[in-house]
Fold:
Amino acid sequence: MFEKSALSKHTALTLTLALAMGSLSACSSTQSTNDDAQSESQPVARSEWKIDHAGWSELGYQWEWTGYPPMQPGAYIEHATAYEDLLTFVGSGSTLSVLDSGTGKVRWSRQLDRATTRFVEPVRRDNTLFAASDTELWELNLSNGNTIDRDSLGTLVNTSPLIVDNLAIFGTLAGELFAFQMDNDFKLWSYKLDGPIHQPAIQVSDGFIAALSQNGELRTLETINAHSGMHTRIAGGTDATLLTDGVGVYVASLDQSIYAFDINDGYRFWRVRSSAPVTVQHTLHEGVVYASTQDLGLAAIDSATGSVVWNNREISGWVLTDIDSRELIVFTGLEMLAVDKERGDIIARMPLRNIAGVRTDSINDGNIYVITLDGGVAKFGLR
Structure:
């Protein structure tokens, strides 16, 4: 099963897997599989997944190709990230693979380390891929997979790196946020938060980053030297990536709330409460926070005021992409939905079960990639 991941800052929108996995498959097939797979440490019987071409057509999409990133025997996909030109996959056997987004063909694949080595989700900058294990950082050429550099981090990391200039910034289970200077291979600074860090730090401005501990300590730090900027507290951590628009930082919290804080002084712009922890990744787009809570279902929240523009209690999922500025494509874990952007009404729906997860490459008119339980990936593009 994928580890939880979410929207990244740029065009790679890596979205959290699986609110649930159903036992039904759609109708009308192009690709099917029957092998055994694993999810986390437990074996999962692979159910046949079939492409519902009519259903995808109703959503405005069509199937383009199905590809298979190479993996070790018995391995499963741990991380998958979609970019406009390529996709990256990390298998449980430390295999890193890159597929061409236009054709689905494998550009290159290699085993980075021992099969038991754990890797966090890699991140991209230009033509370099930064892949970190618990203790090492690899810099890889995206064109051919060649190693540019490989460094020991000197500690156990728990998050993907945030890459800012020549710094790779990591969080740890011990609550340490640190910046690794990649040019000279040393830890430039370290800052201790009051609890484990489960989500990557994000860049909120040219000079500052933000991070949240699972105990609810939210801080911005000056990137170059970790001098503290704003500091505030909430009652819990998060299962979702922090989001920012350069004005506020938006948190979907396990303390049963969605928050917006000023990145400069920590002033709380607004809070939307829920009767249960908010566990679904929220999306920030064109001044609106799209988030799912126990009470509201899927809601469109004005990012400036916190006012709920609309909500639909029938939907609990996250927004993948915006089609023609008219419709939102939403994945619930069991269904793919087309939702009216202005009112929140469901326009079209399609069951999407017996899969491992979904990815998109853009918030605007994005392609959708369905990751199958047999380690395949199917691309669907706009019709």
Remarks:
- The mean pLDDT is 89.
- The helical segments are 53-59.
- Residues 53-59 form the longest helix (7 residues).
